[in-house]
Amino acid sequence: MRTQRIWQPAAAFAIGSASLFGAWSAHAVYNPPIHMANGVEYMSGGASSDEAELMETVAPRWPATFEFSIRDSKRSDFAGVVLVTVRNSAGEPVLSRVVADGPFMVARLDPGRYEVEATLAGQTLRQQVEILAGSGTRALFVWPAGTSVSAHS
Fold first, then answer.
1. How much is the pTM?
2. Phi and psi dihedrals of 138, rounded to 5?
3. Torsion of Cα atoms, 53 then 136 then 98 then 80, to 10°
């Protein structure tokens, strides 16, 4: 009888801890790594819904956010594995052909004007963006329907 009383609280604690750990690990989201090129930090991802939610959450803390998609007849699908080049106002590359491994990319760009090139399946889209101090800039790159994501550049 005495052994049963000692083991009941211990068993309840073990079961509760396992349940709590299981619930915590089920909600753990992979944080994409932060990369650096030419002194500029950037991060990309968003292939899964949890990762996309994470990227949306962190985007306001980064000066530049780029989103990549492919236009379908009725909607847009996320594009992944996009080569991105960012040039400053003098035309010098700040980021040169870095790989965005998902439909979102954030970068810590200094305030200024930039030209951003995004290449998917050999098709390059360009946009001018301006980064203002203290606020974020978002640029959307949309490729036409039929852009093949299997032919990487």
1. 0.76
2. -120, 135
3. 30
